[in-house]
């Protein structure tokens, strides 16, 4: 069955649908933006990409839908766990999508989701934001108090 026909069947009557605030969202697996749209649907396409947090809370799991095992759902997904630093993780994800000829339209959405997951896994440090804001405010006040004479002379 074609993906368009499958989409026409499940687009308004799926168990994953959530209709809230005039928007329609979807909680299906491998839907990168959680939108109920044909482009981001993780059920109807032959090739999908999913990004999930790792079970141990460090890194991400990339879920790729294989084209070969469509009749065997247990073996139709390939899971790759990456728990490097954030730059290496995003580079690996970009490389996997590009080299395996997966969908180019999902690359940026997958990178953004992986980046959000990695940022959520960082420990929260208390007080640093307040100190950095006070430091920046103090620097700004010092600059406003005394005009820079070299910039005035260079103008004339």
TrEMBL record:
GO terms for molecular function: structural constituent of ribosome. Transmembrane segments: none annotated. Keywords: Ribonucleoprotein, Ribosomal protein. One of its GO terms (biological process) is translation. Pfam families: Ribosomal_L28e. InterPro entries: Ribosomal_eL28, Ribosomal_eL28/Mak16. It comes from the Eukaryota. Residues 5-119 form the Ribosomal eL28/Mak16 domain. GO terms for cellular component: ribonucleoprotein complex; ribosome. Belongs to the eukaryotic ribosomal protein eL28 family. This is Large ribosomal subunit protein eL28.
